[in-house]
Amino acid sequence: MTMPNTYEAADRADTFVPHAFPEQSVDLGEVRMNYVQLGDTDRPPLLLIPGQTESWWGYEAALPLLSERFRCYAVDLRGQGRSSWTPGRYSVDNVGNDLVRFIDTVIGEPTLISGLSSGGVMAAWLSAYAKPGQITAAVWEDPPLFASEVVPAYGHSIRQTFVGPLWALYATWLGNQWTIGDWDGFVRAAMRELPDWMFANRFGRVSDGMQVDIPQNLREYDPEWARAFYSGTFFANCSHAAMIAAAKVPVLFTHHSRRVDPDTGMLIGAISDDQVRQVGRLVKEAGQRFDYLSFPDRPHALHQVDPDLYARTVREWVDSLPAGV
Question: What is the pLDDT of the chain when averaged over all its residues?
Fold first, then answer.
């Protein structure tokens, strides 16, 4: 049987739920990208890039706050939300070039960018490899730089982080494009293999025999993303160290809750303090401004949990940049 090249939103029409802002889509060639736009057209553009397992509506609470200052675009990356799912085609370069085409086709002018987690890694990719002049400045919101590589230049690998085992479980029990789809098997395995605090953080507190529903964000997510990260294929042709060293724009790095478990040595958080120091060194050696804000008591997705703080942080940093940036 021949597998389809893409799975479109129409193939998954019963998956989605309504949201506060109207959604649009644009044909970028290989993928149709879903997005929302909010804010007056005379304001500077800001591209918002969600993290892995997150659709654009992770920014739903932050968008009205940001749109007071920016013309905002929040997207679904390929394999997430209503955008195309692309079997066998998940890599940092493919996802990055989707965003390059989105900026050209939809935004049409140089833009600020902000990305969370894996979306923050995509913001780093754009900071280095977007077309000249496309990106004016970048917010990297708690990205797992180095810590999402299988063999990083510095510090913990994805196999030594708390999230690595979760990606492996998604790949094993849900399968590419949900072709396995054994949610109950996943829940049993996750309760057995993940720390209690981690399971509760992702899926809520569960007692024996209690039903665990599939979260809406996972319904909209292709688990092949998880397989590509845990196996290393997502970054197979893109060294984080080389990418960061090629940064061409000012960077704000926000760093959230993190610690190293003393019993296992596992990194509990997106990126360690030592790894961030290397990120800052490489950006500065590239001749770019690097600003660092630590929020050690704030969760990973700051824009979801504390949209006021997130929006204020972005606005104040952009206002601190030289005129014209």
Answer: 95
What confidence category does residue 203 fall into, taking pLDDT thresholds of 50, 70 and 90? confident
HEC string of the chain equals CCCCCCECHHHHHHHCCCCCCCCEEEECCCCEEEEEEECCCCCCEEEEECCCCCCHHHHCCCHHHHCCCCEEEEECCCCECCCCECCCCCCHHHHHHHHHHHHHHHHCCCEEEEEECHHHHHHHHHHHHCCCCCEEEEEEECCCCCCCCCCCCCCCCHHHECCHHHHHHHHHHCCHHHCCCCHHHHHHHHHHHCCHHHHHHHHCCCCCCCCCCCCHHHHCECCHHHHHHHHCCCCCCCCHHHHHHCCCCCEEEEECCCEECCCCCCEECCCCHHHHHHHHHHHHHCCCCEEEEECCCCCCCHHHHCHHHHHHHHHHHHHHCCCCC
Residue 64 has pLDDT above 70, yes or no: yes
Domains and CATH numbers, the chain: 9-156+235-320 (3.40.50.1820), 164-228 (no CATH)
- Name the pLDDT band for 210 (thresholds 50, 70, 90): low
